[in-house]
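Sequence in, structure out.
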Amino acid sequence: MITQHNEFYYFMTFKKVKIDQKKEFPRDQIRVCGDDGPDYPLLEFKGFGSRPIKEIKSTDANYPRKVELIQTKLEALIASTANFMWMVFGFPISLFIDENGEEWQFDHRHLLKAMVINNWLHAPIAKYERKIIDESVDGHEVINKLSSNSVMTLSGLFIHSIDGTDNAKMKDYYVISKCISNDNIPRTKKNIEILMDVAGVNQRFPCQNQKGTIGTIRNHLLENKKPSQRVFNTSKHEYVDWVKSHTLFGLNNRSKVDNVLTYHKVLDGSFTYRYANDILKWCFAAWMKKETIRVCASSKAECEVQIESDRQEMVQALKDILDNTVNWYISWVEDRFHNIGMKVTLPKVEMDQLPLELWWIPQIDGEDKDEGIRQPL
């Protein structure tokens, strides 16, 4: 049923006005507001305006946006803007203003093409500048480090992700790897997930059965095993010197600060469970003596993602051994008592109960070179 309200809305949505080409596009004929445009994670709306068509420059940084024109979309916009008619509730051409004041068109290229074909002289524009993320937001360092090119690239991906079509394909997001390389951002899982989020990956693939697609994108972006210029403390003399220079740590001796017994492990990704068993053996020996141990670990890897992976795998190995060996055996003993009619509940060993301080040597660009990194257990 078509109500009077619906008829009014239909009329207002498709209402057109003729635009005088002898002067700038009239601001009062733009009947939308900034909130009608995309809510960009990286961009801030700065108002509407008018620009001569010939002065609008398209960015070549917006790599993921499709280069081919969608003919049906172009034809609809050509018809919509014929005879200098403007749909008053249409959203203008989006321009990004960089730190030098240069303006770059990064969206609505079909609209611009249609206006050129119809001989428009002035176009309505929506102005955007990059957001500066404050320190209270997790990942602000990575986001604020992005170049203008990367901001436009990721914003282009974001548009594709939320436009309600299937424009954004899984492989389109692989361009995030280019942003990481161009802007010298450490290729860690955390950094990659931050950039995937602002690129709209989670909005594009929100369903539970699409988690595999998100994982495939993440794994592709993590694939970089080549030596990096953004890591340090990877050679033997580097990490030995680092440990020796910090009184809180030591090479298998006691700390000069608090007399805690310290150990050091160098992870190489091949013997993770053996290393984890060593750490647990030290823990249980210290437990019997009512002491605490401090383990300081580094990685032999020469790229950020592998260093990060070595750290994560070590923590996971410790948990797996506790759950699948120690706690499994405790549960087995409980079952034996149950079989003879005795209900016995024995305490399980949780990670945070271990007499262990686990620390990482800083090795990735952005980490404080003088401070150890405490691993929560």
